[in-house]
Amino acid sequence: VISDVQAACQDATVTQELLKEGFHRDLLVKVELGVVGEDAGGCAVAARTRLPPGIYVDPYELASLQRHNLTKVVLIPDVVDVEAPEYLATDHLVLLYMEPDPQCSRCFRAALPVHGRYHRPAEESEEALVVLKSPEVLVCCCDNRLSTECWKPAEVEAPCSGKTGGACQWYSVTHKPVYEELILQVPVGLRQHSLLVCVVTLLATVLCSSLILAAVCKYGHFS
Fold first, then answer.
1. Torsion of CA 81, 86, 89, 91, to 10 degrees
2. What is the pLDDT of residues 155-181, one digit of tens each?
3. 191 to 26, 83, 203: CA distances (angstroms)
4. Domain ranges in the chain?
5. How far, in whole angstroms, is CA 64 from its chain's centroid?
6. Nearest Cα to 47, choosing from 156, 184, 129?
7. Hey, what CATH topology would domain 12-189 get?
């Protein structure tokens, strides 16, 4: 019996890619479970990933998306400083609930909007590299009799549906990432441009302040 179970256990396949360009991207995650001969249609699948300090998820944006049922995400911690630069930020965990792929009974996918943080100016390169590791695959089959011999219990305090409710038993799935890590290239400034940036910023500030002051003096009503 053990040999039959081991033969039926195959690693899940995980693919993740970054869509769009620049600071504001979409992280697309795809998972194909590796249990042979069984239908995972009644299971919930989630990807748990740790975002490094150079990248973050906007909780206010997520709240808007979740109100429209466009995504289901749990942030740990749930408070994220969206204004902090990379060198003052900390990493955080994301539990991304995935939707079934109608074309494959064992396939799931989900997209998550992520944003790059500002980095310190560099000496030579105009890009900073942010490394995103492959996520951990979690499965919860609360309403399904899918065999769980291939998986290990995971300590996750979250409901299967991604909505409010009691927590259920999640399992960690052995997976085979298509790529071990994903690299986000974030544009950064060059140190030798610091003086030029300061001068241009100062001139723009003085010019705009002068225009505002002139408009107030010309059109303002003073008692």
1. 100
2. 777 777 655 556 677 888 877 777 778
3. 29, 21, 20
4. 12-189, 190-222
5. 16
6. 156
7. Immunoglobulin-like (2.60.40)
Question: For 52-76, how does the pLDDT look when each residue is reduced to its tens digit (9 = 90+)?
Answer: 999 999 999 988 988 888 888 888 8
> What is the reported pTM?
0.74
Which residue in 131, 133, 117 sits closest to 188, CA to CA? Answer: 117
Q: State the Cα–Cα distance between residues 46 and 37, nearest whole angstrom.
A: 21
Specify the DSSP class assigned to residue 211: H
Q: How far is CA 19 from CA 178, 181, 195, in A?
A: 17, 15, 34
Side-chain-facing half-sphere of 137: CA atoms under 13 Å? 25
Residues linked to residue 113 through DSSP beta bridges, in sequence order: 26
DSSP for 60-118, please give it. HHHHHHHHTTS--EEEESS---TT--GGG---EEEEEEEEEPTT-TTEEEEEEEEEEPP
What's the token pair of residue 212?
Answer: 């505002």
Kindly report the length of the chain.
Answer: 223
Q: What is the DSSP string of 161-215?
A: TSSSS----EEEEPEEESSSEEEEEEE--BGGGHHHHHHHHHHHHHHHHHHHHHH
